[in-house]
Amino acid sequence: MKPLEILKTAIANSVRSKLRTTLTILAIFVGAFTLTITNGLGTGISNYIDSQVAAVGSSNSFTVSKASTNTAPGSGPQKYDPNTRVLAAGGRPGATELALSQADLSAISAVPGITAVTPVTRVSPAYIEWNGHDKYQLSVLPLSGAQPQLAAGANLDDSSSQAQIVLPVSYVGPLGFSDNNQAVGQSVLIGIDDAEGKIHEVGAQIVGIEQSSLLGVSGGFINKPLSTGLADAQATGAPAAAKNAFADATATFAPSTQAQINTMKSRLSSEGYTAQTLDDRIGTVKTVINGIIGVLDAFAVIALVAAGFGIVNTLLMSVQERTREIGLMKAMGMGSGSVFALFSTEAAFIGFLGSAIGSLVAIGLGTVVSRALARGPLSDLGGLHVLSFAPASVAGVILLVMAIAFVAGTLPAWRAARQNPIDALRYE
Amino acid sequence: MSVPILAARDLTKTYGRGPDRFDALKGVSLEIQRGESVAIVGKSGSGKSTLMHLLALLDTPGTGQIHVDGTEAQDLSGRRLNALRNTLFGFVFQQFFLNPSSSVLENVALPLKIAGVGPRDRKRRALEVLEQLHLGDKAKNKAAHLSGGQKQRVVIARALVNNPQVLFADEPTGNLDTATGRIVEDILFDLNRNSGITLITVTHDHELAQRFERRIYIRDGQLITSDEEHAA
Ligand SMILES: Nc1ncnc2c1ncn2[C@@H]1O[C@H](COP(=O)(O)OP(=O)(O)OP(=O)(O)O)[C@@H](O)[C@H]1O
Ligand SMILES: [Mg+2]
Fold first, then answer.
1. B170 within a domain of the structure (yes/no)
2. How far is CA B207 from each of CA A426, B178, B203, rounded to the nearest angstrom?
């Protein structure tokens, strides 16, 4: 029998007993539906995380700081060394954060693969105000490769000489703007304390408004001219040495493989620096989410295995019902291989129907629900589509289900194939 | 003498085991030449169908050998065996074994489908045989909706569709009235005489048996030389 003929006959056979086939398809449907949904959830959330991560920083840069000399509990205080500078601010009790000096910056840029090193100056503005309205606290972050997801306006321009800022959407109302579009292009004043406690005001233009996001700090992004301006104002009256001490630096590198990145990292760490890529910092979040989705997937696969037994049952009944027919076909010279192919094709076809319908319904329903969620309860997280479906992974689900169905079909198919024609024909 | 198309030596067939054990055939030997017409005659339960199934290679004997055209059947590969069943032999079963939900045409074309013949040739050839058996107008009917005599002819058409060299017919007229039975008989003898098909037929009907070139009598699984009941 020709393969095409086998396929046609298998399809015709599977629709012959409609109720039984429908029930089996329903069981597979549930499994495929669940698997498609969990898959969509995985794709949707990791897409969102990826876009959020891009908003926080670029993927080809390290945040480099001096390896902190952690005082392990019970090890006693570290000996004083006049050559190491200590940053007074912040940190976990017991941990001392060491500052990077100009010499450190050159050492970092000497590491092969690193293309540029920019020191990160921490500026701590006191407030932001617009046009005499109320003043609000503000924290700022240099852009350094981040791509904020904007709700309005344009991104920062580091090469411009104008002082620019991108504000989170939550600042729009409080500062006195009626909407995002009104805020874009307006000049604001940023107040900052200098070393002697005197307030300086630095002007800046709002170029963009950032969507509220999951990982983003609730602060403004500033471009180089503004960051320099603020740093200068902050350093007024400070001793010269303090100007050249940095908490950390951003070291950029050309796009590299993971192995190259690891080499640079270990090189930096052997020289006494801690280097972290964005992935290092975000990695744990992703691992947790992947874990949750893995568990959901496992449930879907359990449903599919149950559906697999449904297929075994359906086909065994159908083999039984068609015993005489099989006997007749074998008596007419149909080979055991063809009989086997006929029944396992039928199984795979039932699997295909169940999974295709399941996936299609899941995509339809998922898209509707995801849109509704994005408009309703999740509207605060702009750009989040809880469920999104990648064609490759949906095709993967369908193939997986067909494979399970095929495996389930082998037992009945084998039983059908090994029958002796006369015994099968005698079957009442 | 030429190589017989079928030769059986010391065939036995045992069904069941233990107390249910039953010897359906107890050492049957026979030879059938190409183009012969042979009737197998015997009482119900004497082992006629069992013998036919063995000769058509649909079942395997307990002991003994069958030679098809000089080749030992046990040495045949699965593929060769299937090819023989498909193209060399045609079999008309005592019970019709039609697929009731398929059309007459599909039923008749089944051996061609198994042989891998394309749909158009299948249809053409199946219609040809149906015409030959005066069933052309029933081709599109469901097999379930035919009368007994029509079903019998459909089964013969199915056995003939692949132009077999040997036609086995297990009581082909048993279910028919005399007139229709006569038509079917004429068709079979016509095939034997004009197309050179070897005809092996099981029958109860002694009158019909007389029309064959040769009769083989069987009783309790053994061949006997003459029809004792009727001779007596
Ligand atoms: N599968 C089987 N299991 C057990 N016994 C069987 C089986 N098939 C046939 N028999 C027995 O073998 C004997 C011969 O059966 P067979 O069908 O060959 O008879 P037959 O001569 O064709 O009879 P009929 O004219 O009624 O068709 C019978 O007694 C039958 O009961
Ligand atoms: Mg019989």
1. yes
2. 29, 12, 10
